[in-house]
Structure formats: C-alpha cells, structure tokens
Amino acid sequence: MGLYTDRVFCVAFSPDGRMLASGSSASTVQLWDPDSGQVLRILEGHRGSVDSVAFSPDSQILASGSVDRTVRLWDPATGRVLRILEGHRGPVLGVAFSPDGRMLASGSVDSTVRLWDPDSGQVLRILEGHRGPLLGVAFSPDGRMLASGSYDRTVRLWDPATGKVLRILGRHIGPVYSVAFSRDGRMLASGSVDRTVRLW
User: Fold this and answer.
1) 124-147 residue pLDDT tens
2) If DSSP codes are grouped into helix, strand and coil, which group holds residue 101?
3) Is the distance from CB of 28 to CB of 9 less than 8 angstroms?
C-alpha cells in the first residue's frame, strides 16, 4: 500500500474483497486494490477528517462519516457522490450498514444514532439515550440488534425496527470506542480506553 502523509482513522474491506477503503485527516477517502496495493481512486468532498467508513453488503455503496457532521454515500466504482446525509449536530464517528443493506446507522458526537434509508436518504429514526459521544456502531448478523459504544462507558443494544433499547451493558470504566458482533451473533465484543476488551 502507498505511504500516507496524513493520519488514517478508519479502514474497511468491501464484502466482495475487491476494494479497501481508508479515511484520513486529509478529508478524503482512498479506495485501494488490496491485491496490487495501488490506489484506485480518491474521493473528495468532506470538509473535515473522515473517521468512519463502511461498505454496503453488496459492495455497491460506500458510506463515510466525517467531522463535518455529514455522512456521504458514494458509488465506489465511479467515485460519484450518491447522497449527502445531513442532520447530526456533531462529528460522525461510526457508520454501519444492516446485513440486508436497507438501513444505515451513523453514530455521532451529538450522542445519537441515526438510522437512514440509504436509497432515499431519509431518517428512519433517531436513537437517543447515551450521555456522551457515540464512538462505534455495529449491526448483529441477523440485523435484529444494533450495538453502540459511547464515551459514557456503556454499550447499548437497540432494536433497529422500533428504536427501543433492549439492554444497557455498563461495566467498562472508560469510553467504549469499538463494538463488533461475532459471525454467529452470539457474542458482542467491546473495546475501551480502560485497556480491556469485553465479550458479552
């Protein structure tokens, strides 16, 4: 891979394995060919660092969240902007597609998770309850749960269909920066500034 001159904040492989996306402090997203290490294209348009990237399950859409408070949806094949999602009142630090690709979650410093319809760009619902910035979001493999990690030291499990909180996991003693479900959905991992990874 090429040498960056700016800080890289996030990376994501496309589900088909043909591309790697990276977001940086240069306000750009770079798309790479993982086999050759060559840059395929550079996506420009954000007005602040890009802190989160995620591909749709069919690899046809790339979402990027930025300090500029927006989420941009791109066509990775052409580099064209498909849609700009606006509404967050703070930097967007986490983005994740649902397994069926019909929903996009974005977590922000404004302490909310927004659920979007990526086809229309409409907000489906706003999830509120965290008492600090949202740092990471992840859907369960069956799409029936959404996890969010926050500066408030908790992980919340939501029902994305209703927006209701299913459970609050609160044993970390530091901000929770990342969350990830196991492939079978039976475990959830959370990583924290407290130097621990917890399996739930």
Assistant:
1) 999 999 999 999 999 999 999 999
2) coil
3) no
